[in-house]
Amino acid sequence: MNNAQDTKDMVRAKYAEIAQQDQATNASSCCGAGGCSNEVYNIMTDDYSQVEGYKAEADLGLGCGLPTQFAGIKPGDTVLDLGSGAGNDCFVARHETGEDGRVIGVDFTPEMVAKAKANAAKLGYQNVEFRQGDIETLPLTSNIVDVVVSNCVLNLVPDKRKAFSEVLRVLKPGGHFSISDVVLRGAIPDTLRASAEMYAGCVSGALQESEYLGIIHDLGFEQVSVQKRKPIIVPDDILSRHLSAEEIDAYKASGTGIFSITVSATKPTNVTGQAPADKSILKAACCGTDSNCC
């Protein structure tokens, strides 16, 4: 993509289209990007069918994990879902928070927000709300959220450091996140990364896993842990749109990998508001001259 705004415009347009597709079309796609493979049912998503609180009508097959599985949501919590789509993870979170909790979904695409609101209205949920907004500038005040979840969304955000800074800002001190996302190990071919379909399909926007986790560490999150990792196998009929047969063979032999990871981390109890630019500034702010205290 040419720049961050081009990327955002493409993602908004693509996910507006997805919001208006039927579930069967989404289910046969790669992360909802379109009917892009004859070899797979869906190359990303995990099975929600046994998850309590799951509502099939809100599942567009756009995820790459089960972030709520590791989120430790408690009754009465305030939960934020980044890239809430039609409301799937919000409704699962609502089951965990109970009627005394609060669930907020934020999505970039007006059509998705409208779809989620309609689903919540049908279910009669009074403590689930949906807002249109940019994850890089969340429409929430600071220090109000107990748990942040997200499912295969941050890889679509151009400035991932800014997105995680916003997660840090809105979390209460001691709050935590559980995020499922797509990461890379090794370099995938440029022709794949340049494809708008693959970008909307949650692959081309992915960072190297080490860089992704490095951002989380650098911003000062604690207890960073990869709870789950699974390989994502891109079928040959997708690869063949971007690579020659020889390039496909070389790609498979290279050891390059595309993975879904679910990562969790906690906001320090003595930090409020926006994250500093790097961890050294965070240490100076909370520790003074004692660099070992945090």
- The geometry reads as globular
- Annotation field: number of helices: 11
Q: CATH-wise, what's the superfamily? A: Vaccinia Virus protein VP39
Give the name of the CATH architecture: 3-Layer(aba) Sandwich
The first-level CATH class is given as Alpha Beta
Question: What's the layout of helices and strands?
Answer:
Elements: H1 4-19, H2 23-27, E1 78-82, H3 88-97, E2 102-107, H4 110-123, E3 128-132, E4 145-151, H5 160-170, E5 171-185, H6 190-193, H7 196-200, E6 207-208, H8 209-218, E7 222-231, H9 236-239, H10 245-253, E8 257-266, H11 279-287
Parallel strand pairs: 1-2, 1-4, 2-3, 4-5, 5-6
Antiparallel strand pairs: 5-8, 7-8
Structure description:
It is a single chain. The chain is an alpha/beta fold and 294 residues long. Helix content is 33%, strand content 20%. The protein has a single domain, classed as Rossmann fold, CATH 3.40.50.150. The protein is built from eleven helices and eight strands. Strands 1, 2, 3, 4, 5, 6, 7 and 8 form an eight-stranded mixed beta sheet that branches. Helix 5 links the parallel strand 4 (145-151) and strand 5 (171-185). It is globular.
